[in-house]
Amino acid sequence: MRSLRLALDELRDAGLYRELRTVESAQGPRVRLDGRDVLLLCSNDYLGLAGDPRLRAAAAEAAERWGAGASASRLISGTMTPHLELERRLAEVKGTEAAVLFGSGYLANTGVISALAGPGEIVVSHARNHASIIDGCRLARAETKVYADLDELAHALEDRRPATVVTDAVFSMDGDVAPLTEIVELARRHGARVVVDEAHATGVIGPEGRGLVHALGLQREVIAIGTLGKALGSYGAFAACDGDTADFLVNRARTFIYSTALPPPSVGAALKALELMDRELVGRLHANARVLREALGAEASDMPIVPLLAGDPEMALARCAEALDRGVFVQAIRPPTVAPGTSRLRAVATAAHTETELREAARSISTCGAVHG
Ligand SMILES: *Cc1c(COP(=O)(O)O)cnc(C)c1O
Hints:
alpha/beta
């Protein structure tokens, strides 16, 4: 048996060893990190809701009324009134017939993909998709094909077997948006199903944050996965889809069937977040995204994720440490999260930052010598 200590030493030697840092305050634009006050520039709290007093109150109220936990899976005795209310609200916001809650985005992707893509079928997955999608493909009994662009997708779909195409709506480590209209058009031509992961699109894309699928009017053509843990400031996830698909997932998605239902406080907080997610709040996120991008010299857009390429993992770690010295926490992202040679800092603007904070943070990072990708 290979020693784990040896494996850890190898990771250290390659600059790929990972360590936990501790946030000693509630989440927000400024946090206490390992004993220091820093500006937080790498969370996915896009709308600044995780620490919002109104979400805290909603979670507390739900705990008072419904308890701390759901005590069983949804199909045993875990389905509670707030779960149905949240599923109804999510379907409304996403413009779909139905929505099905999952324990997390990781569980949603692994459960949905493995339920939909069976033996004798194929899953066609983008090369930069999130790890939970990759793991969903591994769990599915279909054969996986990986594509990097629309030509490769078209080629993969020449296969005669039934196909499911899976893509991130917004690629999580780059912040770019998938060409979803073209993907859906190709899939339609080949009779393939499309699953879109809106982890970084929900609360982020569209004037009201309804996501990429809704913005393009494709909600009847795809299954949209979303998380409650990022822009919505809570925990959990969902699939927004038509009624038959929802029914099928309830019957066949193993991560839905064999896992305890979401705790009521998380559900209460997510319901409150949907109430607060309006044009003004999402507009503030978009304005801040534009400020950060401009300050970092990135291409102009409303997307809050800005990758700052460093190349080597050691270089990314050094830049992260330098930024931290200057009071800005922007985490280094290294393989296998990103491809070898593309280690980076991943800067993220939220609605809760001030313009001044973003400009100062950008200055701190830029003088570390980082170059945007
Ligand atoms: C974070 C993330 C997930 C996982 O969602 P969780 O709710 O955090 O488990 C899935 N897909 C993408 C693209 C993500 O960035």
